């Protein structure tokens, strides 16, 4: 098809003899004459995978009026994303007819609208773009005039506009390489050059009550900490975003400059703020600063404290001038929490969100009002909102069952709940236009360039991105909706409500363009301000029929995954268990509420609307919170000693050290595992001071000698282990039970035997007839044994030499003297003594 289209186009040009000057779009934006013979090729083929990307920076005017500019000016940049040079580039602006119905408008938002009603000539872009190169582009085309040189606007309404770039890569045919589409609203026609005195047509439509929600949110970036620790962020992108030229800085500055307190625009605007974002900014501005976690796991000081302080002050000043609604804390997905069995946490997200926002900004947000993610909720979630004093809910008109009359706005009672509730309905068409066709997530955008880039060669739209043109489709859809006659039945007594998605990526320039367009609609009497807070305070009109809430399937498909919620449920149980160990009113440290409230708020960040449609990111965020809570639990434990315990007695006490890394006093139970070598007496619950240590004397009984290891751990009063178990090494020099029993038995036996021998000697009992191992004859009564002839008489000068005892040892036997017979007179100088009876040595 590409060669055929090129041949047909060239043939038409040759037959028509179209050789002349063409306006030129160059770097300076000055129209120049084209060289003779330059073709004006019209390509209507579908976009391909071309090598050129078109990024538009500005389109003026954003809304066409009789008093506005008479030409359309487009500026941007062309980038060669391929590996071949691109030349013969041409560009033009073309449009479709006014969109007649809402269905046609939705087709245009999806990129399926017709844009070939008026197709002016292409404008050459001089030069060649090398691979990776860029060139600036500026195109100027009249709004009215001939169809071949202008957009030829002839009626009011909303048109689809296409900026079309054709060109030829080297060795390739000329084709469409890039295109950007958007809506162009025309409230009134500028003068026609052919009829300068013609009276412009009066604008159509009527004044409709109007209110606008203005979301101020960002992806959660804070990691849970406890008092005494510096705030910790996952990155430092907020430092750039809070700056005056950053996304969040520009968003608040545009509101402060355009929606001044007391103005009609401020009366129609209600600012919806994420309390977690405000709390993060307040912590960043503290004199001590904050820390940022680096990719390698280390931390570094943050750089956005001053910018966060200025931004927070400006936001507080804007908030005090009009309506403010508090989003759930961290913009949590309440439906995902309720479905995951954590409805109590969903209630806390709503109630704590209001409290945090009101306290920091010193305001009173709309009481009892809740705006859930995507403006939809199921019945259990609505019941949870009712518990959080949520009598009023901001819902999309797609979030209620429609009857014969298709509602796009209004205030209606909700059916099916135990507690009376009503809903303020928002217009789904306006939300779709603000979100863009792909509902771009704030984490998938290029914050450095502020643009959302489509694939090369594709027809893209800036809607939903962070660039300055991201609100152009929203402006067009709002002009379309307000151009219709107001339908009181469809609105059910409520205003037309513009509600961008919570993760709205508009920057300062885009928000300023939207606010300016709303002001134009107010001046044109298309809309009149109707305060959202006033509509919520008034409630539904009398006699309004109740509608059942509905939860669309596509909303469930974008929901935070159940795996992330399941991980959070386990982490929530760990926090509750840890809190059971905290001692209230301990007199030292901080209160348990100051420690555990930030941890519970940290559970809401992984279920933020920023992670809808990104299951991997949501699961990773929930695991990060779980790891942080595990780190805090691990700070309460038994310290492992550097050397073994040396025990010398069986009942020696053991000194162990408990440590507490939390800034609150904790009461814990110490547990030492029983083993074959050590028995431990029961240990009373122990109080450990905040950020301190305590030594505990443990009564232990050693039952064996040697070296062995036991495990010591700390448990909460609810019974779960806190920190990791510590290994206690024990070195025992105490005898074991068996050794002690054997030693004692041997000692008793020795005493018994010695006593028996002494007793027999005292009694003089004879032995068994054995002396020195030889049998002796027992002499008859009254006779004396004969003295051996070879045995000399004992005398003082004659002592028997050493002899063997019973055991054969060569030592004198102390009882050997009993083997000798007594002599008649052992003393020569004394009188003779009669001989006594013979004595036989006892055994």
TrEMBL record:
Keywords: Membrane, Signal, Transmembrane, Transmembrane helix
InterPro entries for this protein: DUF6049
Region Disordered, annotated ranges: 440-472, 764-843
Any Pfam family matching the protein: DUF6049
Statement: the UniProt record of this protein carries the keyword Transmembrane: yes
Biased composition (Pro residues): 828-843
UniProt entry tagged with the keyword Membrane: yes
Record-given protein name: DUF6049 family protein
Secretion signal span: 1-33
Residue stretches in coiled coil: none
Residue intervals passing through the bilayer: 734-754
Lineage of producing organism: Bacteria, Bacillati, Actinomycetota, Actinomycetes, Pseudonocardiales
Species the sequence originates in: Pseudonocardia aurantiaca
Positions with biased composition (Low complexity): 454-471
């Amino acid at each position: 098809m590409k060669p055929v289209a090129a041949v047909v186009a060239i043939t038409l040009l040759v037959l028509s003899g179209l050789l002349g000057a063409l306006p030129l779009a160059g770097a300076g934006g000055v129209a120049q004459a084209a060289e003779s013979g330059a073709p004006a090729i019209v390509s209507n083929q579908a976009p391909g995978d071309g090598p050129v990307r078109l990024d538009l920076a500005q389109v003026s005017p954003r809304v066409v009026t009789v008093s506005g500019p008479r030409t359309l000016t487009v500026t941007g940049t062309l980038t060669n994303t391929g590996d071949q040079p691109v030349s013969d580039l041409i560009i033009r602006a073309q449009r479709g007819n006014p969109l007649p119905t809402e269905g046609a408008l939705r087709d245009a938002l999806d990129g399926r609208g017709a844009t070939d009603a008026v197709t002016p000539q292409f404008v050459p872009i001089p030069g060649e773009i090398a691979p990776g190169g860029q060139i600036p582009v500026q195109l100027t085309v009249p709004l009215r005039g001939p169809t071949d040189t202008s957009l030829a606007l002839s009626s009011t309404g909303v048109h689809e506009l296409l900026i079309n770039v054709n060109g030829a890569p080297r060795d390739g045919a000329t084709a469409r390489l890039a295109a950007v589409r958007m809506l162009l609203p025309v409230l009134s026609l500028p003068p026609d050059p052919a009829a300068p005195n013609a009276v412009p047509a009066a604008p159509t439509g009527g004044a409709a009550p109007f209110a606008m929600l203005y979301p101020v949110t960002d992806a959660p970036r804070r990691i849970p900490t406890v008092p005494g620790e510096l705030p910790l962020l996952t990155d430092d992108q907020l430092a750039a975003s809070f700056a005056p030229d950053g996304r969040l800085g520009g968003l608040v500055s545009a509101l402060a400059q355009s929606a001044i307190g007391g103005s009609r625009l401020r009366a129609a605007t209600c600012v919806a703020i994420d309390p977690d974002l405000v709390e993060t900014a307040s912590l960043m501005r503290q004199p001590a600063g904050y820390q940022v976690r680096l990719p390698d796991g280390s931390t570094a000081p943050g750089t956005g404290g001053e910018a966060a302080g200025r931004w927070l002050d400006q936001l507080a000043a804007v908030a005090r001038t009009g309506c403010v609604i508090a989003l759930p804390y961290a913009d949590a997905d309440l439906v995902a929490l309720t479905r995951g069995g954590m409805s109590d946490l969903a209630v806390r997200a709503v109630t704590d969100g209001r409290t945090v926002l009101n306290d920091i900004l010193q305001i009173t947000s709309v009481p009892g009002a809740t705006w859930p993610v995507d403006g939809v909720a199921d019945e259990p979630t609505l019941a949870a909102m009712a518990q959080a004093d949520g009598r009023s809910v901001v819902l999309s008109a797609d979030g209620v069952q429609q009857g014969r009359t298709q509602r796009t706005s209004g205030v209606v009672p909700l059916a099916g709940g135990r507690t009376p509730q009503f809903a303020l309905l928002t217009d789904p068409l306006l939300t779709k236009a603000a979100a863009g066709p792909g509902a771009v997530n704030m984490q998938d955008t290029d914050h450095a360039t502020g643009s959302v880039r489509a694939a090369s060669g594709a027809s893209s739209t800036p809607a939903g991105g962070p660039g300055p043109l991201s609100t152009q489709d929203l402006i067009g859809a709002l002009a379309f909706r307000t151009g219709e006659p107001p339908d009181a039945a469809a609105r059910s007594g409520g205003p037309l409500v513009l509600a961008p998605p919570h993760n709205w990526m508009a920057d300062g320039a885009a928000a300023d363009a939207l606010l300016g367009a709303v002001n134009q609609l107010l001046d044109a009497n298309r809309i009149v301000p109707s305060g959202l807070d006033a509509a919520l305070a008034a409630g539904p009109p009398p006699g309004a029929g109740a509608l059942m809430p509905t939860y669309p399937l596509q909303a469930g498909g974008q929901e935070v995954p159940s795996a992330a919620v399941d991980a959070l449920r386990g982490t929530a149980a760990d926090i509750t268990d840890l809190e059971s160990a905290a001692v209230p009113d301990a007199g030292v440290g901080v209160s348990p509420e100051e420690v555990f409230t930030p941890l519970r708020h940290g559970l809401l960040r992984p279920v933020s609307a920023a992670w809808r449609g990104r299951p991997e990111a949501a699961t990773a965020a929930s695991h990060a919170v779980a790891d942080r809570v595990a780190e805090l639990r691990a700070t309460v434990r038994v310290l492992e000693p550097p050397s073994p315990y040396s025990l010398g007695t069986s009942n020696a006490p053991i000194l162990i050290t408990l440590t507490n890394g939390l800034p609150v006093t904790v009461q814990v139970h110490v547990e030492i595992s029983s083993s074959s070598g050590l028995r431990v007496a029961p240990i009373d619950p122990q109080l450990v001071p905040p950020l301190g240590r305590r030594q505990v004397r443990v009564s232990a009984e050693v039952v064996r000698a040697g070296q062995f290891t036991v495990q010591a751990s700390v448990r909460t009063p609810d019974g779960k282990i806190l920190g990791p178990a510590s290994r206690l090494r024990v070195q025992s020099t105490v005898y074991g039970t068996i050794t002690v029993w054997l030693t004692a038995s041997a000692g008793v036996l020795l005493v018994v035997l010695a006593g028996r021998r002494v007793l027999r000697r005292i009694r003089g009992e004879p032995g068994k007839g054995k002396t020195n191992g030889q049998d002796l004859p027992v002499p008859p009564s009254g006779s004396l044994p004969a003295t051996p002839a070879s045995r000399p008489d004992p005398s003082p000068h004659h002592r028997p030499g050493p002899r063997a005892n019973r055991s054969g040892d060569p030592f004198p036997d102390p009882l050997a003297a009993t083997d000798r017979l007594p002599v008649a007179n052992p003393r020569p100088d004394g009188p003779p003594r009669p001989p006594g009876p013979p004595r036989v040595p006892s055994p």
